[in-house]
Write a structure and sequence with these properties.
single chain, alpha/beta, five-stranded antiparallel sheet, 11 helices, 30 strands, flat, disordered N terminus
Length: 693
């Protein structure tokens, strides 16, 4: 055997390799080799090669048809930027046991000749742009134990014959466009260890046969369109450590049999239509450290023992019927006497309901039919939002290169990226190591995908798997209000500042009064106001936002926003409300026109509000940004009156007592009046200049 190992270096693949006709093993992985030509023609003469490893080199080449002339048993070319189609001649490698072509730029379909690779044990074609239907030829590979087709563009259904490959141990088909029901035969793979079918368009219900996968340790069926109940047979999956059914349309209750899942470490049932209670028996799952049932219709008492002691409140949010420990941000459960009284009320209500049910049954059925049709339309693959894979984002941001970094914070980082279709986006990557990241990501997804307003950041898509979470947002070329406001190279004029603050106020008015339930942003500050190409302000970052019910006016939280912008009751007692947002907006209004941060050292024991309050109205010129107005300006007196009115408005927004603060509807109205008056000052100046020309 001839073995050739090249040390790590930056160069072209040595031409002299073509002379090594007896070469059997060639390992070139993890270098910086580039291809001299558009094809890997250097391998053509090496007909004795049995082990070829090219992974992690920027070859930027096409896989040649001559690959079929080799004697390969192992071929690995991961992350080489290979392009074009996978050649049909790959089917000539009848001795091949491992084929790894993951993370390239292959297009077209999986060649049908792959069915000839009867000795193949490992096939990895994930993270490419492979399209077409699922390759039925894979069903001929009786020795296959590892199959990865993740993050491609495959469509259609999984063939029934895949369930005949009893040798399979790991199957990854996530992030494609696969549809229809998951074939029943797939649940016969009793020895499978890992199965990931997430981020597709599978529908139908989960069958009892799901419980056959007794060897499985990872099962991920999230982000599909599955419905029906969770079968009790899942309680027989004694070895499963990670189970995710999130973001589906699953109904019914959490099975009591889940108490048997003694190895379970992570369970995600969020964003479904589940009802019933959280079984108290789950307290026995000592390995459980991640549990999420948020955004369902669960009720009853949250278990308080075992792993539930340390679970965050975000695990249970948006389940209006839950009660228990106030630390979980739910009301206390009623006492037994109250429960008995409630039962009597429910019984009486049921009797009344039964009396009227006959007369209303037709109407209810018709409404249900309409809702069902609408729901199917909403989730059909043709109109579902585009899903973007991790590797598409990696390409878009050039490997999350620091040169594309827009900003960073405790949540993670934001990168500028260019998608394959040329769209420029902002990629917000969450730090999955930080506690609460998954809840923050889910909350921001839920809020941004349902809100619609010209002054809110638009979410384009998301990317979510077990160890990576990102939002793909509308890119704002003029960055944030904070950067422009405090820039040495750029100065926002008075009208630009006022327009931006009107934009932010309009967004807040919508959040507080224009949406179905009040949304409290909880972290208003200039860095969370982004500016588009036309300098229009867009409010962003809903990572710690709160949704109130129609009956609520306040909420309690242990998550605090940025020091300096926090309302007194928020900082002291953790109380957030519409009025706490108004306070933060008022501080931001002061900062915008004074160009002084609220925690500036110049204030000493005071703060920005006190500084402005003590200077009004006589020393206005000393507190506003010196670049805002000049002494020789036309209509200076009227313009100063407008700025003074803005400062007074900010004072009314930042009153220490929450009840004394204005609401955002009145703030918007007041700002628009000031804007109208200020605009007339500049129109007068413009007419005067035209007459003098």
């Amino acid at each position: 055997m001839v073995y050739y190992q090249v040390p790590s270096q930056i160069c072209s693949i040595p031409k002299s390799l073509v002379n090594l006709r007896l070469l059997e093993v060639l390992h070139l992985q993890s270098n910086s080799f580039i291809g001299e030509t558009s094809t890997l023609s250097f391998i053509t003469p090496l007909i004795n090669l049995v082990d070829l490893r090219l992974s992690f080199n920027p070859l930027n080449a096409v896989l040649p048809k001559s690959i079929g002339n080799l004697s390969l048993q192992w071929f690995s070319a991961i992350g080489c930027n290979l392009k074009g189609h996978i050649p049909n001649e790959i089917g000539n490698l009848i001795n091949l046991s491992s084929l790894e072509l993951e993370d390239n730029d292959f297009t077209g379909i999986v060649p049908t000749t792959i069915s000839s690779l009867t000795n193949l044990q490992q096939l990895s074609l994930g993270v490419n742009r492979i399209s077409g239907p699922f390759p039925n030829g894979l069903c001929e590979l009786s020795s296959l134990f590892f199959l990865k087709l993740s993050q491609n563009q495959m469509r259609g259904s999984i063939p029934t014959c895949l369930g005949d490959l009893t040798s399979l141990r790991e199957v990854y088909l996530d992030s494609n466009n696969l549809t229809a029901n998951i074939p029943l035969s797939l649940w016969n793979l009793k020895d499978i260890l890992k199965l990931n079918l997430s981020s597709n368009f599978f529908n139908g219900s989960l069958p009892p046969q799901f419980g056959n996968l007794k060897a499985a340790i990872l099962l991920d069926l999230s982000w599909n369109q599955l419905s029906g109940n969770i079968p009790n047979t899942l309680g027989s999956l004694l070895k499963v450590t990670q189970l995710s059914l999130a973001h589906n349309r699953i109904e019914g209750s959490i099975p009591e049999t889940f108490r048997k899942l003694v190895s379970l470490e992570a369970l995600d049932l969020s964003y479904n239509n589940m009802s019933g209670v959280i079984p108290k028996s789950l307290e026995a799952l000592q390995q459980l450290h991640s549990f999420n049932v948020s955004f369902n219709r669960l009720h009853g008492e949250i278990p308080s023992g075992g792993p539930f002691v340390h679970l965050p409140f975000q695990s249970f949010m948006s389940n209006e019927g839950l009660c228990g420990n106030p630390q979980k941000h739910v009301p206390a459960c009623p006492s037994n006497s109250k429960k008995r009284r409630l039962i009597w009320i429910l019984v009486a209500s049921l009797v009344i309901f039964v009396i009227g049910v006959v007369s209303s049954i037709v109407f209810i059925l018709m409404r249900r039919r309409v809702k069902t049709v609408n729901a199917e339309d909403e989730w059909s693959p043709e109109i579902a939002p585009q899903r973007i894979s991790y590797y598409e984002l990696q390409r878009a941001t050039q490997g999350f290169d620091g040169n594309n970094l827009i900003g960073s914070g405790s949540f993670g980082s934001v990168y500028k990226g260019t998608l394959a279709d040329g769209m420029i986006v902002a990629v917000k990557v969450f730090n999955v190591q930080m506690e609460g990241t998954f809840q923050t990501f889910d909350r921001e997804c839920e809020i941004l995908r349902t809100l619609r307003h010209r002054n809110l950041t638009k979410i384009i898509s998301s990317c979510c798997n077990l160890d990576f979470k990102a939002l793909i947002l509308e890119y704002m070329p003029n960055e944030s209000l904070d950067k422009l406001l405090h820039s040495r190279d750029y100065c926002l004029n008075i009208m630009q500042r006022l327009n931006i603050m009107v934009d932010v106020a309009s967004a807040l008015e919508y959040l507080h009064h224009g949406y179905s339930v009040p949304v409290i942003h909880c972290d208003l500050k200039p860095s969370n106001v982004l500016l588009d190409n036309d300098m229009v302000g867009h409010l962003t970052d809903f990572g710690i936002a709160k949704l109130l019910t129609k009956e609520e006016s306040i909420a309690h939280t242990t998550t605090f926003a940025t020091i300096g912008y926090i309302a007194p009751e928020y900082g002291l007692e953790g109380i957030v409300s519409k009025r706490s947002d108004v306070y933060s907006y008022g501080i931001m209004l002061l900062e915008t026109f004074t160009k002084k941060k609220p925690n500036d050292e110049m204030f000493g024991d005071l703060n920005l509000r006190s500084f402005v309050h003590n200077s009004l109205p006589d020393e206005l010129n000393k507190i506003i940004d010196a670049n805002l107005l000049t002494l020789d300006e036309e209509n200076l007196s009227q313009k100063l009156q407008c700025v003074s009115a803005i400062m007074e408005l900010a004072m009314n927004c930042t009153a220490n007592i929450a009840a004394e603060r204005m609401n955002m509807t009145n703030v918007v109205a007041a700002l628009k009046k000031i804007k109208q008056k200020l605009s007339s000052c500049y129109r007068t100046t413009l007419r005067h200049d035209i007459r003098n020309q």
